[in-house]
Amino acid sequence: MADYSFYSFETTGAQIEAMGKWKYLALHHELTDLPNRRMLHMSMESYMARAHQQQTKLAVVLIDIDQFKKINDMFGHYVGDQFLIEMSNRLAALSEHHIQAFHLSSDEFVLLIESADHLEERMERVTAIFDTPFQVNQNRILISASIGVSLYPDQSIDAEKLIYYADKAMYRAKSSVENRCRVFQPGLDE
């Protein structure tokens, strides 16, 4: 005898809540809870549009933690993870200064700085994060970072190019002994 059971495809409140949770998880880093790379790409156009409308600059700041692997090697991955959470908390605290943090990968973060016309002052807030050692469990960790900056609309009006230029400037900063923060200049991408 054939089974003619009826299955309901109604969306329940719990299913809607679960879908919202999955969407949130897809757009945020699983460890640090900061918006992730996917969210950065989704957000760039609106940040650039707002900067265009307000006739201000938008800074794309790429931060790479120097020698992060050593933290994992010396203290273990648990301490490395706790360090990343503390780093994320410090970066997220910058939001009151119109700075939005994103966690791209293990040791890479991006900041979008709105109204970046006074960039030097804003970057002092960013670099100050590394002046205070990180206290993770019983470990006191002093770390540095290499930082690259690109500017909308000065260097590009394309989101991918702005990230690319910030990355190039970051690698130039990493290879420099005296300057750990570099603003992109034409010629760095060669």
UniProtKB/TrEMBL annotation:
Q: Which NCBIfam families match?
A: GGDEF
- Which is an annotated Pfam family here? GGDEF
Q: What Gene3D superfamilies does the record point to?
A: 3.30.70.270
Protein name, UniProt field: GGDEF domain-containing protein
Signal peptide location: none
GGDEF domain spans which residues?
56-186
